[in-house]
Amino acid sequence: MHKSTSGSLGPSGLDLTQAFFKPISGAASPSSIKRHTKISVIGAGNVGMAIAQTILTQDLADELVLVDAKPEKLRGEMLDLQHAAAFLPRTKIIADVDYAVTHGSDLCIVTAGARQIPGESRLNLLHRNVALFRNVIPPLAKYSPDTILLIVSNPVDILTYVAWKLSGFPSNRVVGSGTNLDSSRFRFLIADHLDVNAQDVQAYIVGEHGDSSVALWSSISVGGVPVLSFLDKQEIAYEKETLESIHKVVIDSAYEVISLKGYTSWAIGYSVAALAWSILRDQRKIHPVSVLAKGFYGVDGGDVFLSLPAQLGRGGVLGVTNVHLTDEETQRLRDSANTILEQLSQLGL
Description:
Pfam families: Ldh_1_C, Ldh_1_N. The protein is α/β, with parallel strands linked by helices.
């Protein structure tokens, strides 16, 4: 696989670096302190490439690595991105089918996953994705033992658990994209309803990235104003069914996009890039992401990954936020955890 080469020109590899640039007097060798940020994206499908493109435009990495099982498509995607170099921050872009190219990655983003065959059961699809991860995760852990694994492949909560087990990493260095995008959709719908900027809305979807997810209505605020308590104090009536209908739209959003264009890509690209930014820039921002949830909010049925509001930084998951949940929300979160645990038991993991 062709790799990006610095300092050479033409197929013969004519090295022009020494001729083109001369060092200044008294120059010393570059510092050995590591300032080089390397991100590897595993899977060059629609989601993987949307993430790669967003990472490039946001200047998140000095080196971007693409890994996929299809060498022709991989080379095409690499060249297409390289040809945009004049319009992007300087980033070295490499692509290969060999996982050795991911050596020394600060962050490994896994988007690879098996597609469901018509008539195939969900359980069989899960088994195939677990088998795929057995070929993906161990090489990443081998070549980048200090990396943080960010799992995007679906079902993300189960596969994040699988990645944690296969990697042998501490739990803080294995994160799933979880409901970060679901929460963005949730914030958009609330902001659209109130005609405000979505960035002024704080609202979380937690639990499973799926049908059993939980909308934390009790903690929603707009511009720092708790919404439900404001409505109560103003004696403004609202129906619970209205709130549930908004949550259902969030759940159905991905299905709608897939039915219209065949797949989702741009929103998850921005969502994952935001997670990468928080981690690599040590922003310590709070994101609802899939983490080891045992011991939080009464989730104690076993080791399970599901989304909770977590603080992210250079060490991965720095902690889980102590958001107040109502009794009903707590029970729904436990039910969501049990849904995931049941699926894990079927896999025999």
